[in-house]
């Protein structure tokens, strides 16, 4: 029986009795075949549609979230933050990944002298299931931040939420399944005790865990995980620290920012965040001022029923959790004394049956020799002030936590911030430098972002989640493929230098996006570079660098003669391969990977080979009516001896046919 955190009333009954854990995992692995058949872009579109579907239903989730003790602001981070992660991964996948079922990784490696033997890494989906064990504090975000990269990576997920808030997770999962927007079996949910779940994991599976460091250590050595080499990622609790810089004065904006940030991290989610500030490092001469500042800031915090608009902090997740925090507080007081506490008036809720706990601040006056503040985590609205006298001591104190998810430094002094960041970096997963210059835009000490790493060394679990597409990699196998250039081009659908090309009487710029094929190539006419070319280009651009226009200086330079501007070569090459009449090529979209290899002097003759390297289909944005795609061309400029003088990739925007993914298409399915 689960009770709500505010009034202690029954909410739900959960159980895993009768669940066939082995069967659930086997079903997910089999159902995952449909997910793996989708390309990255197809998965991204499904994830984006799912995010929109859930956003329309968010108010139902907010209503349930108040029962967990969370305020509207707390729930926003969990609910809309979780849904926002779906959008973030959908966007990143469409922007950075190919429209394929595999992900070419890194560059092509030339393995033979003649270029007939090459190699490249590919990332392909693991043919297993992602088992995701989540904590109680973020029942929506905690699930979706693991599900999103797994789904993009082509792996189905089985979610095991913490029991205290599983009813909110269950509601979201029920809506996801009912949406029909993702392949059947892409997401399963198991509530209650995990039973023999991990006994059934296999070599192609992955396990991701969020929770206590002690539980992570126990699961990490599970016989099935160890014996079958199952990848295990842990994100555990940690004793995160925030450092107020020695350079900060009480009248500085940074002083107020530090006080507000510590108070906010103590009271957000009632302090039940694995990234919350547990240790506030303060210059010794500012301890009294910071204490008074925190006392004033925390006095503004109203405690009670989080469904009320006038309540800023709700309850802990359960009475049992509150008692665990109280027990830890008692242990901490063996080496620290309470400097801020008290029992605030309760605005709604039940003080006895609900799980309320007032914010508490301790002061440890001997932080360099104490152990408790660096080893014991009160997972609630509790923080300990730790005085320090030098930046070296501050760095040492942060490291006594033996690995943290997040740390912060409040300072505007560049040298101080640099010393602290570099000193703390090895023991942290993420560091925030906060000051008046980024105060309006910063997301806070304890806010993980989809684009950045979430995880940390040591006690923090030694794992890594989020961090953009790096989280997708966790769900894929990296394989090295060795072949000749033509075969490797066929496999990867990206042109490999040395592969066979297709030359056509139709100029490639006269073909639409749909007609162009990887390997389509054009070898241009020749052009001899003259002194007039160099002089005219210098006059046009104002680039009178001595290597181009000074005969004596150039003779004494590294080339021993005057040479053409590198950008002249690119311009001349464009004149060789461009088809000038209006057609399907709409614009030059960019230029990448430019390298100048050999100098071109007066009298040298150049020609260019342009070859389609890969194609990237672009979705129509709202308001756009002309479907397009990006074609990436490999451009190779050679001289009269056949030597390569320059190479680069050109991106062109090319018109394509409309398809079912375009918003204005008549064949597109109506949104759910």
Q: In which range does the helix fraction lie?
A: 25-40%
Largest sheet: 7 strands, mixed
Roughly how many Å apart are the termini?
35 Å
Oligomer state of the chains in this structure: single chain
Form type: globular
Structure description:
With 672 residues, the protein is an alpha/beta fold. The chain has 20 helices and 28 strands. Strands 13-15-16-11-10-17-18 form a seven-stranded mixed β-sheet, with helices on both faces. β3 and β4 form a beta hairpin. The radius of gyration is 30 Å and the shape is globular. Keywords: Oxidoreductase. It holds the Pfam family Aldedh. InterPro entries: Ald_DH/histidinol_DH, Ald_DH_C, Ald_DH_N, Aldehyde_DH_dom, HotDog_dom_sf, MaoC-like_dom, PaaN-DH. This is Bifunctional aldehyde dehydrogenase/enoyl-CoA hydratase.
Topology:
Elements: E1 2-3, E2 10-12, H1 21-36, H2 40-55, H3 58-65, H4 72-96, E3 103-110, E4 118-125, E5 130-133, H5 141-152, E6 157-160, H6 166-179, E7 187-189, E8 206-211, H7 213-220, H8 223-227, E9 232-236, E10 240-244, H9 253-267, E11 277-283, H10 287-299, E12 303-304, H11 319-332, E13 337-340, E14 346-347, E15 360-363, H12 372-375, E16 382-388, H13 391-399, E17 404-410, H14 414-424, E18 428-434, E19 453-454, E20 465-466, H15 470-473, E21 476-483, H16 485-492, E22 502-503, E23 520-523, E24 527-528, H17 531-541, H18 546-549, H19 551-555, H20 566-577, E25 585-596, E26 605-618, E27 628-638, E28 644-655
Parallel strand pairs: 5-6, 5-8, 6-7, 8-9, 10-11, 10-17, 11-16, 12-14, 15-16, 17-18, 22-23
Antiparallel strand pairs: 1-2, 3-4, 4-21, 13-15, 19-20, 23-26, 24-26, 25-28, 26-27, 27-28
Helix pairs in contact: 2-4, 3-4, 4-5, 9-10, 13-14
